[in-house]
Structures are given as C-alpha cells and as structure tokens.
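Example record

The entry below shows one chain as it appears in the dataset: sequence first, then structure tokens.
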Amino acid sequence: MPPTMYGVVVCPQCERPRAVNLSHKTATCQRCGKHFKLRTRRVLYRSEDAREAAAAVAEISRQLHEG
C-alpha cells in the first residue's frame, strides 16, 4: 500500500492555505466552510508527513499574507 500523501492547497473562497489528505477527492475549508474538489486546486506542497504539511501551511500563509 502506498504511503498517505498530504498536501497544502488554498481555499478558493477565503484564500487560506490548509493541509489535506491528497487521497481524498474533496476537502472542506476549516475557516469558511467552503467544500471544494481537490483536483481543481494547485498543490503548493506535498509530503508523506502530516506534521510537515502543517508546518508548510504556516509558512505558506505567512508568504501569502506578507506581500
């Protein structure tokens, strides 16, 4: 069985990054509640480690809202 892959995508509604399980087809934004298809979102970061993906969310959020 292949390892679980996690990724970071940006919500199409509130534009906040969030970590997702890439084996799922959809995700729901924890901030605004928007339900969206993962295949329609660009994956900004990938990892087999959920903690690394969570850390990437913080970094990507900082970068997006910095400038």
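Notes for this example: The chain has a mean pLDDT of 96. The longest strand covers residues 6-10.
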